[in-house]
Amino acid sequence: MGRILVVGAGLSGAVVARELAEAGFACLVIDERDHVAGNCHTSLDESTGIMVHRYGPHIFHTDNDAVWAFVGRFGEWVPYRHSVYSTVRGKVFSLPVNLLTINQFFGTAMTPAEARAFVAAQAEPIAVPANFREQGLSLVGEALYEAFFRHYTSKQWGTDDRNLPAAILRRLPLRFSYDINYFHHQRQAMPRDGYTALTQRMLEHPRIELRLGTAAEAVEERFDHTFYSGPLDRYFGYRLGRLGYRSLRFEELRLEGDALGCPVMNFPDPDVPWTRMTEHRHLSPWRKPLSDTSIVWREFSEATEPGKSPYYPLRLAGDERLLRDYVGLANAEHGITFLGRLGCYAYIDMDAAIGRALETARVAIAAFGAHAAPPAFVHDPLGKA
Ligand code: UDP
What we know:
Elements: E1 3-7, H1 11-22, E2 26-31, E3 42-45, E4 50-53, E5 60-62, H2 65-72, E6 77-79, E7 84-88, E8 91-95, H3 99-106, H4 112-122, H5 132-157, E9 187-191, H6 195-203, E10 208-212, E11 225-228, H7 232-235, E12 245-256, E13 264-266, E14 276-279, E15 293-303, E16 312-313, H8 317-331, E17 336-338, H9 340-343, H10 350-369
Parallel strand pairs: 1-2, 1-11, 2-10, 7-13, 11-17
Antiparallel strand pairs: 3-4, 5-9, 6-9, 7-8, 12-15, 12-16, 13-14, 14-15
Bound molecules: uridine-5'-diphosphate.
């Protein structure tokens, strides 16, 4: 096996390159951006010393021991508990919806058992929710759904909540306790020096060459195999059409003192144009700020047009059909494996991206060892693998 090309220096690309390099393969890793770490890129704001999450807040959380062990090799991790609040009609509530949210929202002092029975009585009896709205109504009922989910979701996804898959809401827990931890995973932490330093360390290996500012289309050398973590439709020159994504735009405010008092505040009201605000200093609470100035971002969700970064795969019905056709094209290719959020058109968290990349590398190394070609997908975007 000669040289391997890895397209994309985000987590997926960096993990696969690292694993292959350690197994003895020489890799060229390219990224068209001028930095590694993809959308979890972080960098220091010089004047304030605040670590800024340049593509929005990224919090690492996992129950996967192999993933946790892997990331631990590339830098120090600081335990971190994420908290998110939600401003609804001029009042602040804690998220995810928990006993405090329920009692504050309804002006009650219910016990866990009472709240469980109360919410169950509000919930609509939908046995198998077919979409996001049905999932929400069957989980929390009309009042909570309307306040916390319906409008946030239409702003975030730019479409009617009945067009969206129920799975999106399953990301969020509903708790009948005062536990306000946003995630339920055992391990939750932030890389002390940021995700970019972490990814850079993954890529520091004598068998890895990194070229930034380099698009896949501009590479003319020939490779024995390519691992492609760019957008699946882009690889094929969008010849069947474009897969739908949501993109984000951020508006920065520099405010004196603590502006939000928490890392993330959601704004689900329909008349507020942004979805959430992030106060970056609270994402790295262990860092000592250089000044009292705080960096706060308003986040706006937008359609992805050519030239804008894709963030969230939409996966509406039309996208699913198009995806099936692109997967067909991909399976007919030779010498290429697609991976990652963009390569598999999948809304996956960072730990899932790392776990999948580790598995992709394992399958590929075994295939190379048997003088066989790795498959186009180790994780089938159509959901069968
Ligand atoms: N969501 C919502 N209200 C909220 C927070 C989330 O309706 O206050 C819905 C929304 O559709 C969102 C999804 O739940 O896209 C997943 O939320 P999460 O916080 O996991 O989104 P991410 O941080 O990945 O953008």
